[in-house]
Every structure is written in structure tokens, then in C-alpha cells.
Target: Reductase [Rhodococcus jostii RHA1]
Amino acid sequence: MNRPTYVTVGAGQAAAVAARNLRRGGFDGRIVLIGDEAHAPYQRPPLSKEFLAGTDSQDSLWILPEQWRADNDVELLTGTTVTRIDTATRRVEFAEGPALPADAVLLATGGSPRRLPVPGPRPDLVHYLRTLDDAAGLAQQLAPGRRLAVIGAGFIGLEVAATATAAGAAVTVLEAAEIPLAAVIGPEMGRRVCALHRDHGVDLRTGAGVSAIRTTADHVLIDVAGAAAPLEFDAVVIGIGILPNTAVAAASGLAVDDGIVVDAAGRTAVAGVYAAGDVARRYSERRGRHVRVEHFDNASRQGVAVAGAMLGRDTVNDDPHWFWSDQFDRNMQFLGTASAGVVVRGDADGLDFTAFFFDGPHLCGAFAVERGEDISVARELLGRTVDPAVLGDEDADLWDLAYGEDDLVAEGAGA
Ligand SMILES: Cc1cc2nc3c(=O)[nH]c(=O)nc-3n(C[C@H](O)[C@H](O)[C@H](O)COP(=O)(O)OP(=O)(O)OC[C@H]3O[C@@H](n4cnc5c(N)ncnc54)[C@H](O)[C@@H]3O)c2cc1C
Model:
């Protein structure tokens, strides 16, 4: 009997986790990971942090090392671009070469950086950061004294700013909004993160909308709305978000709405075709609507859930949204959603605190700086009615809020 073939389009975080869980779940058919990058699946978070700083090597990034793939009979095609799925026959079509028949296809194509037009002779002075190759190129720019502009003060832009500053570069961040990150972590917390950067010498300019960028023989010139003259840099990193890679799904006739539309388990409307990770807009029972999340934890958990669905099990990932960011010597973690009702526990000025967010009397989110354990407790308390005064009291034991006195609790388990 022919072994069934399961194919992933894209060989990033979600695809790799799905492959691992297909094997764990007992699938003994063919698994083929197809990625258009030159590399085996790797973790992206260190690309703006330890790898960019040079403290983590490329070898530390691999998700499914070669030996694991050999031991588990997982095939990998790198440098291979999928163009379309023939959904009637489930054949996977490529830019070049014959199609690959598949019994199930997982679309895990991630996203690509939003780009800005940059005329001039030196496009190599303009950087984006999504791939290992992008990070290796950007790392060359981080020498002491180099003048680096970062356009966009989102998490990745700010991580690059922190890593570059620590490497001795003179960093200017240009952000159009008045308060960076406000849409995600709320304005008060956004201001705290700004202060962290300014305290470390980053020239962080808010309300600084970039109207044009161009290169000269050896510089980048950036026009900022309202400024008299262009600003001059040795290089620029543009970090203004990503667009989901939906081209394959659209060419295959699948439903696309700022992401590939899937149910809570990652199934598209076409039997045997699934989507997960940054590219997937999945139904969330918790939110009562479809959501698309661009974070590592979501890609990993969706990878697990979709593997279950591919094995015919009813697995769903509807965990609250969680992510982390490392900037300078601070670890930040965010869980759930932000709101205007904020209670701060700890030393906000000293950047050692947790902000708990309330939706009426219910805890709806938390943002912790150097307090990962508070995120673990918040996970237990999310959606529950919690006394804000207790949360704000440093002497109160938060685990007592989460559990009854007689419950056994694995404290310090991390988020
Ligand atoms: C620099 C950086 C830092 C980050 N830091 C954090 C962090 O601190 N915390 C956090 O929670 N998240 C972080 N993230 C986000 C996290 O890495 C992503 O959410 C995660 O990688 C998404 O996984 P994915 O599998 O959906 O997509 P990806 O990992 O992007 O994989 C998709 C792959 O599919 C390939 N592909 C696309 N189209 C095709 C095609 N037609 N044919 C073949 N292959 C194709 C792409 O090239 C890519 O290799 C960071 C991301 C970046 C870029």
C-alpha cells in the first residue's frame, strides 16, 4: 500500500512543529517540508537579539536538526518555491519542475516585511529583517560609530535598536506614532519602553513620519515630515510590520482575508488543506472572531493543533496571546490584551514591574518587565474577577489568588 504524503508549504516555525507532532502523533507516511529559503527550519526570534549580537551561533537556531530529520524520516526541500495547490487533486505545484501529489497540505508560509520605495545606487544600505540571511547582512552594519536608522518602533525595530546600540552603533529610531507600541501594550507601557531606549542613548523620535528615503554612493538620506533637511545615516533598517504570504493560497482559490481563513483547528474550507502560523487567520472562540497572530508561541501552538487536525483529531489552539521581547538587559512578556484599566505591581520607574490590565472587574492581560513568573500567575487568573488592590500589593502572594490554600502549585515554572 502507498504511504500517504503530507506536505508543508513553508519550512518555518509552524511547519517544523507540525512535522514533529505528526511523527509524535504516530503518522508513518511521508512528510515533506518545502521551503523557499536556503536553510533548514530555524528560529527567528534570536535574529534581532542574540544572533544579531553575535552571541548565538547559526547552529543554535535549527528547529529540526539534520540528525532528527534523518531519524524521523522527514524530507526537506530547500530553495524551492511553491506556486499553487491544485485543490481538486491536491497536487503541489512549483515554480519549476513536476508537481508533487499530496494527501494533505499545510500552508505555513509566514509573512514578508512591508517595504518602502528606496531609489538610489546603494540598495544594500537598506535592510529588512525576516530571514537568517537578512540578519547576517544587518550584523555587518553594527560596528561602533556606525550611524544606523531604524524606521518603525515596533518590537523588532526596538530589539534591533537595542542590539545595535549595545554593539556601539549610534542609533536613531524614527516612529510615526506619538507613543510606540501603544496599540499592543497600551500608552503608559509604551512610554516606559521609550524611556528604556532613551536612557541607553537611543535617539528615539516619535511623531516622526518618514516621507522619503534615498541612497547616495555611501549614505542613506531620510526625509522626516516637518524636518528642514534630510537626516543622513550609514544604513537603515525598515521595520514597519509584515504582510502575510497569501499568494499560494490565493492562487489555489482558498479564502484569504489578510491571512488564510481557517477554523479553530487550522482547516481551510477545502478538505485536506490546512494553514498555520503568521499566515493563518484562525477562528478564536475566546475572541469570538477570526484572529491572525504574528508570534512564535502562536506559530508553535498552531503547529501542534494543526498536526492533530491532520491526524483526524479535534485539536484546537485557543490559548491567550503570549509573546516576549528582549531589549537591552530587560525581558518583557505580554499576555492577553491591554486595556485602559491598569494596575501596576512593582517598580515601574526601575523597569521591574508587571502591569495588569482589566476589562471591568476581569483580568484581561498583563505586561511584565523582568517578571516572567507574574505572567505564569496571570495565565491562571485571566478572565477571572480579581481584586486590583491585591494585584498591586507587592506583599501579597499572587499564587494564593490563583489557587486555593490547599492546592499544590509549581511555582517559578515560567510563562
Ligand atoms: C527578527 C524576528 C524576531 C522575532 N522575535 C520574536 C520574539 O521575540 N517573540 C515572538 O513571540 N515572536 C518573534 N518573532 C516572530 C516569530 O518568529 C514568527 O511569529 C514565527 O517565525 C512565525 O512562524 P511561521 O511558521 O508562521 O512563519 P515563518 O517562520 O516565517 O516560516 C515561513 C516560511 O515559509 C517560506 N515560504 C513563504 N512562501 C513560500 C512558498 N511559496 N514556497 C515555499 N516556501 C515559502 C518563507 O520563506 C519562510 O521560510 C520574530 C520574528 C522575526 C523575523
In short: The chain is about 25% helix and 30% strand. The pocket of flavin-adenine dinucleotide is lined by residues 9-15, 34-37, 44-45, 47-48, 81-82, 108-110, 129-130, 156, 245, 248, 277-279, 294-297, 299, 323-325 (CB under 6 Å). Residues 356 and 366 are 4 Å apart (CA to CA). The first strand starts at residue 5 and ends at 9.
